[in-house]
Amino acid sequence: MRYNCQKLNLDAAGGVSARRLAGNAKACGENLKRGELFVKFDFVTLGEVYEVSSGLSKRKDSFGHGHPFLSFKTVFNNAFLPDVLTELADATEKERRACSIMRGDVFLTRTSENTDELGMSSVALKDYPDATFNGFTKRLRTKNNGAINPIFAGYWFRSKHFRELIKSMSVMTTRASLNSEMIKRLSMPLPDIKTQNSIANELFSFDKAIVNNKKINNHLEQMAQAIFKSWFVDFEPFDGVMPENWREGTISDFGDVVGGSTPSKAKPEYYTEHGIAWITPKDLSVNKSKFISRGADDITELGLKNSSARLMPKGTVLFSSRAPIGYIAIASGEVCTNQGFKSIVPKGSVGPAFIYHFLIENLQTIENMASGSTFKEVSGTTMKGIPAIIPDDGTLCRFQEECTPIFVKQELLEAENAHLADIRDSLLPRLMSGELSVADLDAAK
Fold it and tell me: Which of 99, 344, 360, 441 would bridge 132 by S-S if both were Cys, CB 3.0 to 4.6 A apart?
């Protein structure tokens, strides 16, 4: 899906150039100029259009059985509620009536240790019979059924502008928090329902394409993992017996184990927006992709030189060794990391595919070997000594050949999803404000 940025007049100050669009960056500019949102639609306070309610606070032994339950984590991780709520909690009939979940309900996280996790939203796109929701969230239920498109609402409540409103409104003592009165004073745009429907359909089309690509990638991932297990765990191509020319060894036989470092934060000249890719475990927690090219921050040549971070080649397998242990990704270009990683640079015939799937298959073993009093960590010495069966070079080469088409397809689909998300996120504030209409977009396609 492509848009003609000149037709949409997006080269104005604060927008994004056509050259940048051609480079598969953001298709249209962010419209949060100096923190202000261009406004054409009328705004209403949430208290005008929603009733705000609190959820259930239950004892620990009330969970794991009973009725479907919407947790803080599920709200935080999903802009729209998943089709099935897998968590369970005991709830009386009275509690199920008072804390029910119906189509159009909006859930906001109301308390957290920091403002970044506060006011994260999730919207129900259907009714959830007998389900209840967590007391650390607030439910917003529309006063006028049919006046607000729930998909439109979902995009507004996850928008950058609403996130800024949340941060400006929240109270930070020992924890960040929002109460019902604060929520009621927050605002949202409210065009007519026909306009809401058009905007919702346009934005949702991007997410449907992203979800479809993720399904394909998940299927490809299962295929590659099944091949790994067949060859290197069950030895199926070898009549169920490990070949005699394979031997016992350690991870170090597969590649160089490399740690990382953080250049001094007191030296601003060590950091830049466009420099050397520098990855932290937080980047993998946000990205959640198999392949990664850069994180939230880049470092400069000076920062690299004055730290013990090491630049690693494309194909390096990144493994987070603390806080938490077990994030795994493959570098799609040259990268370095902070000290939260023990990455593996493949040797010779050992490709990234084998190392990646070896780490997944042996994650529990690696976690069990971690040590530390404050928090568990896998040291460099421990990582280098993780036991492994070392296949012959020919088998390793054949496995890489089997997986290469799968990995190439996965990387392409992840890049396409990132591009789709960029376009969606760039269009969102302009559509929400009324600066652009869906008709404008149709004319530009």
Answer: 99
Q: With 0.90 as the threshold, say if the pTM is over it.
A: no
Helix, strand or coil, per DSSP, at residue 165: helix
Q: Tell me the backbone φ, ψ of residue 411, rounded to 5 degrees.
A: -65, -40
φ, ψ dihedrals at 236, nearest 5°: -60, -40
CA distance 237 to 439: 57
Cβ-Cβ contacts under 8 Å for 204 (sequence gap 6 or more): 151
CA–CA separation, 194 and 152 (whole Å): 11
Would you mind telling me the total number of residues written for the chain in this entry?
445
For residue 442, the model assigns a pLDDT of 81
The torsion of the CA quartet 78, 79, 84, 86, rounded to 10 degrees, works out to 30
- Give one DSSP letter per residue of 181-217, joined into a string: HHHHH-EEE---HHHHHHHHHHHHHHHHHHHHHHHHH
CA-wise closest residue to 281 among 382, 366, 378, 143: 378
Identify the DSSP state of 270.
Answer: G
Q: Which of 348, 426, 408 is nearest to 5 (CA)?
A: 426
Domains of the chain with CATH codes: 1-41+191-215+401-445 (no CATH), 43-188 (3.90.220.20), 247-390 (3.90.220.20)
Which residues are paired to 101 by β-bridges? 128
The reported pLDDT for the residue numbered 8 is: 39
Q: What is the rounded CA–CA span in Å between residue 24 and residue 32?
A: 21
| C-alpha separations of 185 from 21, 64, 181 in Å | 37, 36, 7
Other beta carbons within 10 angstroms of residue 258's beta carbon come to 20
Give Cβ neighbours of residue 318 (< 8 Å, ≥ 6 apart): 279, 284, 292, 327, 328, 329, 330, 331, 335, 337, 341, 343
- Strand 291-292 and strand 325-331: the pairing is parallel
pLDDT confidence of residue 375 = 86
**What residue type is assigned to position 41 of the chain?**
F
Q: What is the dihedral of CA 324, 325, 327, 331, to 10 degrees?
A: 110
What SS3 class is residue 242?
coil
Q: Check: CB of residue 421 under 8 Å from CB of residue 203.
A: no
Lowest mean pLDDT segment, chosen from 171-175, 225-229, 364-368, 405-409: 171-175
* Cα–Cα distance, 291 to 412 (Å, whole number): 10
Answer whether 410's CB lies under 8 Å from 220's CB: yes
